[in-house]
Amino acid sequence: MSKQETIRIPPSARKLGLAGARRGINVGNGTKENEQLIDPERFWDIRAAKYDRLFWTKDGSYLEEIIRMGALKPDHMVLDVGTGTGAVAREIRKYVDHVVAVDISDSMLSHGDWTGISALKWDIGNSFFADGIFDRVFARMVFHHIIDNLDRAMLRCYDLLNVGGRIVVAEGIPPSDTPTVVNWFTEMFRHKEDRLTFTAGSLRQSLTRNGFRNVRARIHVMHDFSVKNWLVNSGLPPNKQDIIVALHRNAPSEVKRAYRMRLVEDDCIITTKNAILVGTK
User: Fold this and answer.
1) Which residues contact 122 (CB under 8 A, 6 or more apart)?
2) The pLDDT value given to residue 265
3) Of the four listed, 101, 132, 161, 258, which is most buried by Cβ atoms within 10 Å?
4) Where exactly are the structural domains of the chain?
5) Is 115 exposed, middle or buried, given 0-12, 13-18 or 19+ CB atoms closer than 10 A?
6) Share of the chain above pLDDT 70, in %
7) What pLDDT does residue 38 have?
8) What is the pLDDT of residue 145?
9) Whose CA is closest to 75, among 170, 162, 186?
10) Tens of pLDDT along 74-86?
């Protein structure tokens, strides 16, 4: 594939749920004549090869906070949605006897270590599990990919939980809720992939709207985040990486302050924020 092609998923391939959300990744100049249609599996093939080299995926304090919010017990049956290569599922397995990890990507699953974990390829939009069988559902960095059917995906998670069960959601959010920062964040990510922009407040509203009670949020701050590491291991070609680096270097002063941005040779070091929310059925 040349650098001048754009990968997009056709509407016919946008199934309901997670698969429907993972719509594609722009890797070219965006001109119509250079667009190429691929399915969601191809999109995740591109990302899977270097996914585990992303520092944030294995950040210990981030994982610890996610697990703490879950209030796990040994006899819990836990579902990890959009598990990727399984970093969250492996952490959960330390605390419970039964973990089911699901993802729509064979490539992601093939890069994981599933010792003691039931891993399978599954789209949450399809029926497979009986309702009410899980005590916990985890979804880290999943819902921002669900462009078309966010409510359906959240409702499916709700249905899979037993009464009193919890969902734990973790998503990257803008470093500030001001319009300037949120708009810049949204525009910057537009050059990387199709995705939703969340704030802690908007995630809380979505979970509440879909039936979850007692929704609360914590903000996890990740210091010394390397933009270079993130982009080099993103699956993007160099020209797209350069655009995103330039957006950081030339960001408005309000954005730089919010990120506590430092320019270090060919890298931008920033402080990022992740919202971790828990809700009860």
Assistant:
1) 102, 103, 104, 128
2) 87
3) 101
4) 52-222+271-280
5) exposed
6) 79
7) 45
8) 87
9) 162
10) 999 999 999 988 9
Residue numbers of the chain with a pLDDT score lower than 50: 1-38
DSSP-based three-state secondary structure for 51: helix
The predicted structure's pLDDT at residue 218? 97
CA distance 188 to 54: 18
φ/ψ bin of 84: left (φ > 0), alpha (ψ from -120 to 50), beta (otherwise): left
pLDDT (0 to 100) of residue 41: 59
Q: Which candidate, 133, 132, 171, places its Cα nearest to that of 276?
A: 171
* 130: DSSP letter: P
Class in CATH terms, 52-222+271-280: alpha beta
Q: At CA 222, angle to CA 218 and CA 227, rounded to 5?
A: 135
Q: Residue 39: CB partners within 8 Å, gap ≥ 6?
A: 9, 13
Q: What DSSP assignment string belongs to 168-207?
A: EEEEEE-S--SHHHHHHHHHHHHTT-------HHHHHHHH
Q: pTM for the complete prediction?
A: 0.83
Torsion of CA 222, 223, 224, 228, to 10 degrees: 20
Phi and psi at residue 164, to the nearest 5°: 90, -5
Q: Are 53 and 235 in contact (CB under 8 A)?
A: no
